[in-house]
Amino acid sequence: MASRLSQWGNDLYTGRRSYDIVGHRRRWYAISAAVLLVSVLLLAVRGLNPSIDFRGGAEFMVTGVSDTAQQPALDAVEELLPDDVPRVSAVGSSSVRVQTGDLTDDETDRLADALAEAYGVPANDVSSSFVGPSWGADVTGKALRGLVIFLVLVALVMTVYFRAWRMAAAALVALAHDLIITVGLYAGVGWEVSPATVIGFLTILGYSLYDTVVVFDKVRENTEKTLDQRRYTYAELANLAVNQTLVRSINTSVVALLPVAAILFIGAFLLGAGTLRDIALALFIGMAVGTLSSVFIATPVLVSLREREPAVREHTERVLRSRQEAGAEPGTPTPAAPRVHVGAPVPGTHLGASAQPRRRKPNRPAGRKP
After folding, report:
1. Is residue 61 located within the same domain as residue 44?
2. What distance in Å separates the CA atoms of residue 87 and residue 70, rounded to the nearest whole number?
3. Residues 131, 136, 141, CA angle at the centre, nearest 5°?
4. 192 forms bridges with which residues in the sheet?
5. 28: CATH
6. Is the pTM of the predicted complex or chain greater than 0.90?
7. Do β-strands 192-193 and 49-50 pair in parallel, antiparallel, or remain unpaired?
8. Helix 165-189 vs helix 25-45: angle between axes, to the nearest 10 degrees?
């Protein structure tokens, strides 16, 4: 199995096997547009569920309970605060978290006693904390400012590094694609957006950017002298770069997703580590989407932008026209351009040691030992 995977990766790198990812970019654009539409609808219909850190209010933690049912907490809050709509959730197998709106000191003490009585635990097992709405607004503002600064720096650094603003534009399109889909799917799940979730959102942007830069580095290497040759088009050489980095993208994603999946499915769902599930879900969705976008979105968008340049467009037309003319017979209409199997960007391939000329052994005089 390992040898087959190794051979598959070697075939992709040398061009012996290739997937026409860039050539079918309209298909990927359509799929991406459909997923983006679903994500936007989820954001519009369900919306994000901000945690108490963003909206402010009081939070009670009841520990050492024998039953984590939500109804006793709902009844206790309704009896004391009929106008409040609490948020009750189980934390692990022996704790219950209750979140309410702003409370006075007297209301906080009475609700803590009511929760202790409802769950049959000592009053010392009920802790309370208060978060002001101004703190949540400050965290939200800083997160948005950090996102804007990050995107501006990404655009500048990539433009300077690749010396091409189109690569920076394609990378930003992929980043926006990843962020919208991740936030939309997170909204669809309905989990609270905590500061840990915001950290997860910002982390996936860096991961997606790293994967995109690796692919773009190979694209730049393959297409550096595109206009100086007449064998392949810019799109074909860019597609070769995507295939050459495909195995690396898959391996990196699997290695990165395994621990995140362990935290999400084992830690959060089986063990009840609720404090980890927010960031784990954001990372899991974002890393998976970021890997797909670096392969199916970033490079195809780059090719679409480059083919708008007159020089690249004319070069592509000349290459396709020369293929048509080469395949046409005298007196017959010019056929469509044949599909060319793109190999190594440098003409010529190494056939291995078995194809090299063998040296003859020198003839030695009879009776003479070496």
Report:
1. no
2. 9
3. 165
4. 49
5. 1.20.1640.10
6. no
7. parallel
8. 40
